[in-house]
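Pasting as-is:
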Amino acid sequence: MHSKTYYFDSNDKHCPLLLGHKLADIINNHKAPFSQIVILCIGSDRSTGDSLGPLIGYKLSKTNYPGLNIYGTLKNPVHAVNLSAVMDEINTDHPDSLIIAIDASVGNRSHIGYITLSCRPLKPGLGVNKELPSVGDICITGIVNFQSILDNMILQTTRLDTVMELADCISSAIIKAFKTIDVPLYN
């Protein structure tokens, strides 16, 4: 599968539908066989800008939607300290799964509030110069703020409204995608 990156504006009222449709299309056309889907939401609940992943995990865990295997919530976040252990757990408990990795990111000022979707692994920690392993088969990022030499400070001062708008859009899109995928899912 190609590694094109798709951009979606979370301020567009059609964003959850457009993102959900493209995500379902990518899942339906994924070449590697899989029997389960894991949603890996990366981030920390201790930093506004880095809380996107745990917020999405929290929202999805409240839906009780069949087939959603969620890692990373507000209660049990997945972050730099425990990422390797969580990946070991996922590989043990959900072998042959398709992993959709989600994280906050920084980018250009004009892209704040945008969501990216790519058919490639996620490189968490890149925006704050952390060296972490790449994870996932598909990645979704929400651009929460602009890139700066003070990225840790930028994440601390990110507007919660931006993060919540992105979390609402991405979690809605995932549910929409799961309602339209052709692949049978097992918990």
